[in-house]
Predict the structure.
Amino acid sequence: MSDEKLPTYFIGHGGVSILFKPGYGPVQQDLREIGKEIKALKPEAIVVTCGHFQGESDAIEVNLKEPTKVWHDLGPSWHTTFPHVFEYQYEHKSSRALGEKVLQHLLDQGIKAAGVERDLDHGIWVPFKLMFPEGEDELDIPILQISTYAGNDLNAHVRLGEALSSLPGRILLIGSGMIVHNLRATREGTADTTVARSIEDAALKALSAPTPRERNAQFLAFQKREDWLDAHPTEEHVLPLYMTLGVGRDWSEYKVWNQDRYIIGQSYLSFRLGKLPSAGEGLSGRL
């Protein structure tokens, strides 16, 4: 098992609301199932790109801070509406040595990169609290966050994933974002989930494509959709998905979680690319 490459995951991370507001039980349950699967893989570390961390220029930024703490990167309205969320913590490990290793690997792969220091934003600690709950199934390995690129070049993020895929060792690569992320639509609160449903259906169709090449081509064509701007007024939350496509460029196997659990402006769809090293057949998508 030690010589086999680990699969990669895209996590629809949601906001801090999924930790305590009613109605998120099914989303929480599927994130927990993903966490159990990841723990069974026994990775030595997790490297995450997230929709809340874009580089400042044309370089990938690698977090070198150790230790890191929870960053309550929430809007000012949370202080008056739900102040208790600023008490949330998430105990975790960080590793400057791992960050330096990943940084050097990216440079060796021809990826422009630089080290920075920052704390763990809610695009990681929120889903990780559900995937690896404290007092029950904590992670005992380092979590390293790296940025996406500034801008919206999807192909650049596929290439980033390809570069990361050759990291030595049992390092698990995760993209944390949302396949539909339009907070304006969420705040307006209409009853129309047409866009979220349509984009999610297209993603499921792409995942079931006959080859990884065709799958990636379908995902890369999403920017040409008429409803893409309605799904992503800004594209930072979908960029981590394209990193995972680069990691899994040779893998046709996949599994889906949190299908059909969308709300106005947001989709929680999550998936794995690649098969489980200890599993046999039957890893096709759950549609």
Residues 25-41 form the longest helix (17 residues). The longest strand covers residues 45-54. The chain has one domain: 8-273. Residues 8-273 form a domain with the Protocatechuate 4,5-dioxygenase; Chain B fold (CATH 3.40.830.10).
